[in-house]
Amino acid sequence: MQILRTPHELSQTVDACRVNGQTVAMVPTMGALHQGHTSLFDLAHRHADVVVATIFVNPLQFNNPADFDKYPLQMDNDIELLQQHGVEFLYAPDADTMYGSNFSTSVQVTGITDVLEGSSRPGHFSGVSTVVAKLFSSGRPDVAIFGQKDFQQFAVIQRMVIDLDMPIELIMAPTIRENDGLAMSSRNVRLSDSARQEAVTISQGLHKAQDKFTSGICESEQLIKTVVSMIESTSAVIDYVKVVDSVTLKELPTANLGNIIVVAVILNGVRLIDNHVLT
After folding, report:
1. Could you give the residue range(s) of every CATH 3.30.1300.10 domain in the chain?
2. Residue 119: how many other CB atoms lie within 10 Å
3. In whole angstroms, what is the distance from residue 43 CA to residue 176 CA?
4. For the chain, what is the radius of gyration of the CA atoms?
5. Closest CA to 260 of 211, 209, 216
6. Please, is 116 exposed, middle or buried when counting C-beta atoms within 10 Å of its C-beta (0-12, 13-18, 19+)?
7. Which of 55, 67, 88, 118 sits CB 3.0–4.6 Å from 113 for a disulfide?
8. Where are the alpha helices (DSSP H) in the chain?
9. Which residues in the chain are classed under CATH 3.40.50.620?
10. Does 83 score more than 90 pLDDT?
11. What pTM does this model have?
């Protein structure tokens, strides 16, 4: 695996791949890789000839500096995982390379960034869209892979790609879960043992809501109450539980197939998000 450090190196590498007739998939990450990430690399290999993984802990998307400081860093382990999964290139710039001293540009997607995570984390999605725009500009992938757990992030990037005429196919990969159902996340390592046990109620609540929907209950209020009642049995503080449209992210009074239940809680000082698309 070749490690790239600058936008120029990334662009040159991708150009060389294209000269060889190869297609390129990109998987943007912030490192602290786990099985959820490796599933994205494996999926990327099924959609392109070569895979570029990126690791960059993006300061622009942390509205809470303490959260940024606590983000786990494990580059040696990450490199080992990338090699095990056949990733051909790792793009790992530092903050000075990405932003420099005079950086003064941001990419703003309006509307769908004002709700859910956007309302709780001001500036977060501006940071996300700005860094992903830079990655896409230097790497020019044919395909980019993102996980469903960060559903709103995918919706924001999709809107940006459509609006800015970026010739990139976006693919949303299913959430990978622990054996007990908890969505895999780099933040999970910060949970205490007791909080880790409580965290599983999030996915349990989503599962029960799906069961109710399957039985014919379509009122969003009832589905939301089902999820909330599970989580309220723990020490978690609920930020939101909502039923929304999968494209516009608008709240819906009645749920239909393909709508999504989104959840965010604070547990043991750690923000956890999850979601479920109603089937």
Report:
1. 186-272
2. 12
3. 12
4. 19
5. 209
6. buried
7. 118
8. 7-19, 35-47, 65-70, 75-84, 95-99, 117-120, 124-139, 151-163, 193-214, 220-231
9. 2-173
10. yes
11. 0.94
Q: Considering only CA atoms, which of 39, 54, 50, 7 is closest in space to residue 143?
A: 50
Residue 238 β-bridge partners = 265
Topology (CATH) of 2-173:
Rossmann fold (3.40.50)
> Which amino acid belongs to residue 8?
H
* pLDDT score of 266: 97
Tell me what the pLDDT averaged over the chain comes to. 96
DSSP output for 136-151 = HHHH--SEEEEEGGGH
Torsion angle (degrees, nearest 10) of CA 77, 81, 87, 91: -20
Residue 184 per-residue DSSP state: P
Residue with tokens 């043992």: 193
Catalytic residue set: 37
Pick the CATH number of 186-272 from 3.20.20.105, 3.40.190.170, 3.30.1300.10, 3.40.50.1460: 3.30.1300.10
- Amino acid at position 220, single letter: S
Rounded average pLDDT over 37-65: 96
Confidence of residue 196 (pLDDT cuts 50, 70, 90): very high
Tens of pLDDT, residue by residue over 60-77, are: 999 888 889 888 899 999
